[in-house]
Automatic annotation (TrEMBL), chain A:
The protein's name in its UniProt record: Peptide/nickel transport system ATP-binding protein
Annotated SUPFAM superfamilies: P-loop containing nucleoside triphosphate hydrolases
GO CC term (a single one): plasma membrane
Record bears the keyword Phosphoprotein: no
SMART domains: AAA
Keyword Lyase: no
GO process annotations (BP): peptide transport; transmembrane transport
Domain ABC transporter stretches: 5-252
Alphabetized PROSITE patterns for the sequence: ABC_TRANSPORTER_1 (PS00211), ABC_TRANSPORTER_2 (PS50893)
Similarity remark: Belongs to the ABC transporter superfamily.
Pfam families according to UniProt: ABC_tran, oligo_HPY
Keywords for this protein: ATP-binding, Cell membrane, Membrane, Nucleotide-binding, Transport
Subcellular location: Cell inner membrane
From TrEMBL, chain B:
Keyword ATP-binding: yes
Protein's recorded name: Peptide/nickel transport system ATP-binding protein
Keywords: ATP-binding, Nucleotide-binding, Transport
Ranges for domain ABC transporter: 6-252
Similarity-based family: Belongs to the ABC transporter superfamily.
Lineage: Bacteria, Pseudomonadati, Pseudomonadota, Alphaproteobacteria, Hyphomicrobiales
Protein origin, superkingdom: Bacteria
Pfam families: ABC_tran, oligo_HPY
UniProt subcellular location: Cell inner membrane
Gene Ontology annotations of biological process type: peptide transport; transmembrane transport
Main location per the UniProt record: membrane
Entry GO CC: plasma membrane
Length: 318, 315
């Protein structure tokens, strides 16, 4: 099946600092790809690259290709790329307040997306907005459209941002840590909504999170990033059952679970390196229990493994 | 049975807001009638969603803010009525670690200065080897003593926050979401460190978190709060929840195991405003089991069941 969004060997730099190193990802219609890794691993930059938004923060793709529905985004005009965002790609950020205008009523903010991208009339746009809010189970949508963002709870605001992302009737949603700032009961609600959108409408979803529990709950495949590099990618079943990369295994082992013996959580030693001082060889080697001489000298290539791929000199069960 | 280290009785805190020229004064109850005990050497967890009153409860227990009603007894001494000098002496025995290692450390001070601060405040001389020993105790290299907070990673900063809290060998340490702004990989390191330090120093912890999974892993007993009130006290980490809210919290977390996916049944209803709490059970607006009685009457924290639960229809 052809991918809706495909990154092939994409590298990203800001100024002359290389931050993302040859990442390849595919997101298909009706599927959820999870992108996971500690903070600073390059998840948001990868999302910005996928949306052609890097110039906003002074960054650029230095290598590789980003294709949407088969077309290379580098070959598009600015106007074409702008039309793609909102119309065919919806975006949901971690903090709903960065996406919402505090001094504009909710209804107007959602309406504008379908007026702009679907050329709907004012009345048709409002009808669409009300319909979307109702589908997202926002109680009393007719009153909410007249409210200002500060009058709504965090979970409600995030549902409004999702409504804005959906208003242009996109094929792909990119959600960058959409539940990180929310309480767990609200997180469950948002995750359920995102899962249902993919199931019922055949949307493609690129879901960025640092929560391995969320990945296990709704993603079809997962891509694990470490220090700007893809270290493992594949279907969630085999990856959670038998993570081949020591970093993937360590990330899963960091989560406190039901029935876990006290004192069994130890975490991953050390910290994510700064982009100004990535270690040579495998970037994970200073924190890795399996590291050998080879790991310190040579970067492990990303090689196929089962239905996925892994980049480790000592890949396999611990 | 020995005297608990901490005992609170009917602890209540109300905040007033507005009351200026143009707004009517409004009163909200951030902590409502909380009675609890913390045994010596225990790790007591307090869990609940943001705004439920966890930090306010912590501040009341340390008497960093004044109580509206109720009392706190620390090792047999009533704190709520203690005069300032006696309170300062008592403060040596309690410490707090905050969520945000970025804002809780003064950026102008080196780590050596940060760690010397508690001695200065209490008017104690700083023993020569104190700073290196404190750094070593939290797993930081001695060479960091001359660094500034911004030169450290988030995990290292939180280690400094812990070292500072332990400087004067307190009995009680209140940990207010100490890992909430850290990655899980670093959270696990910090939790392991806290467990080691507790064993070595015989500490008592009040551990606050919004993460029930984490609290169940780390704590001995767990207090569950909702909108300022204690709704359940889980006597151990295995106990099944009996309050519908605790149950909902448990069902909201996802196990990192695709084989254990489950249908998500989100809580419906809206959270009432803390300025206008309903007459009955505060959870009734979101509870699947709510009856007329729940909406009318406030369920007390009942002692008759397997463990304390404030619900008319416990699971
Ligand atoms: N605007 C920027 N300027 C300079 N460096 C940046 C910028 N945005 C991100 N970075 C750096 O790029 C790396 C990856 O960042 P990011 O993609 O935001 O990580 P993640 O989303 O995984 O937490 C980090 O080391 C971060 O410091
Ligand atoms: N100094 C204050 N003045 C007014 N309201 C406050 C103050 N401190 C906390 N509150 C309110 O009390 C409630 C409980 O807050 P807090 O104890 O910080 O909750 P938590 O730590 O569980 O997130 C919240 O609604 C908060 O807005
Ligand atoms: S390549 Fe070596 S250092 Fe890197 S993850 Fe694999 S074993 Fe660890
Ligand atoms: Mg990010
Ligand atoms: Mg708090």
């Amino acid at each position: 099946m052809s991918a809706l969004l495909e990154l092939s060997g994409v590298s990203v730099a800001i100024g002359n600092v290389a931050l993302v190193d040859r990442i390849s990802l595919r997101v298909e219609a009706g599927r959820i790809l999870g992108l996971v890794g500690e903070s600073g691993s390059g998840k948001s930059l990868t999302a910005m690259a996928a949306m052609g938004l890097l110039p906003l923060i002074g960054g650029r793709v230095t290598e590789g290709e980003v294709r949407f529905a088969g077309r290379d985004m580098a070959g598009m005009s600015d106007a074409e790329r702008r039309a793609l965002r909102g119309r065919r790609i919806g975006f949901v950020t971690q903090n709903p307040m960065t996406a919402l205008d505090p001094v504009q009523r909710i209804g107007a903010q959602v309406d504008i997306v379908s007026r702009l991208h679907l050329r709907l009339t004012k009345a048709a746009a409002r009808a669409r907005t009300l319909d979307l809010l109702t589908q997202l189970r926002i109680p009393d949508a007719a009153a909410v459209v007249d409210a200002y963002p500060h009058q709504l709870s965090g979970g409600m605001k995030q549902r409004i941002v999702i409504a804005m992302a959906l208003a242009g009737d996109p094929e792909l949603i990119i959600a960058d840590e959409p539940t990180t700032a929310l309480d767990v009961t609200v997180q469950a609600q948002i995750i359920q909504i995102l899962g249902a959108l993919v199931r019922d409408r055949g949307l493609a979803l690129l879901l960025i999170t640092h929560d391995m529990g969320v990945i296990a709950q709704i993603c079809d495949r997962v891509a694990v990033l470490y220090s700007g590099r893809l270290v493992e990618e594949g279907p969630v079943g085999p990856i959670f059952a038998n993570p081949a990369h020591p970093y993937t295994a360590a990330l899963i082992d960091c989560i406190p679970q039901e029935g876990m013996a006290k004192r069994s959580l130890r975490g991953i030693p050390g910290a994510v390196p700064s982009a100004l001082a990535f270690p040579p060889g495998c970037r994970f080697h200073p924190r890795c229990r399996r590291a050998t001489e080879t790991c310190r000298d040579d970067a492990p290539p990303l090689l196929p493994l089962g239905a996925g791929s892994v980049a480790c000199h000592h890949a396999g069960p611990p | 049975m020995s005297e608990p280290l901490i005992r609170t009785e009917g602890l209540t805190k109300r905040f007033r807001s507005g009351g200026g020229l143009f707004s009517r004064e409004r009163v909200m109850t951030a902590v409502r009638d909380v009675t609890l005990e913390i045994a010596r050497g225990e790790v007591l967890g307090v869990v609940g969603e943001s705004g439920c009153g966890k930090s306010t409860l912590a501040r009341l227990i340390l008497r960093l803010i004044e109580t509206t009603e109720g009392s706190v007894v620390f090792d047999g001494t009533e704190l709520t009525a203690l005069p300032p000098t006696a309170l300062r002496a008592m403060r040596k025995r309690m410490a707090m670690v905050f969520q945000d290692p970025y804002s809780s450390l003064d950026p102008r001070f080196t780590l050596a200065e940060v760690l010397a601060e508690p001695f200065r405040v209490q008017g104690h001389d700083l023993p020569n080897d104190a700073v290196p020993a404190m750094l070593a105790a939290v797993g930081l290299p001695e060479a960091l003593a001359t660094s500034y907070p911004h030169q450290l990673s988030g995990g290292q900063r939180q280690r400094v926050g812990i070292a500072r809290a332990l400087a004067l060998h307190p009995d009680l340490v209140v940990l207010d979401e100490p890992t909430a702004s850290l990655d899980v990989s670093i959270q696990a390191q910090i939790i392991a460190l806290l467990a080691d330090l507790r064993d070595k120093m015989g500490l008592t912890y009040l551990f606050i978190s919004h993460d029930l999974g984490l609290v169940r892993y780390f704590c001995d007993r767990i207090v569950v709060m909702y909108l300022g009130s204690v709704v359940e006290v889980l006597p151990n980490t295995q106990a099944a929840p009996r309050h519908p809210y605790t149950d909902a919290l448990m069902r909201s977390g996802f196990a990192p195991d695709p084989a254990r996916r489950r249908e998500i049944v989100p809580l419906g209803g809206e959270i009432p405003s803390p300025f206008a709490l309903p007459a009955g059970c505060a959870f009734a607006t979101r509870c699947a089991f709510a009856s007329d009685r729940c909406r009318r009457e406030r369920p007390p924290l009942s002692q008759g069941l397997s463990h304390p639960v404030a619900c008319f229809h416990p699971l």
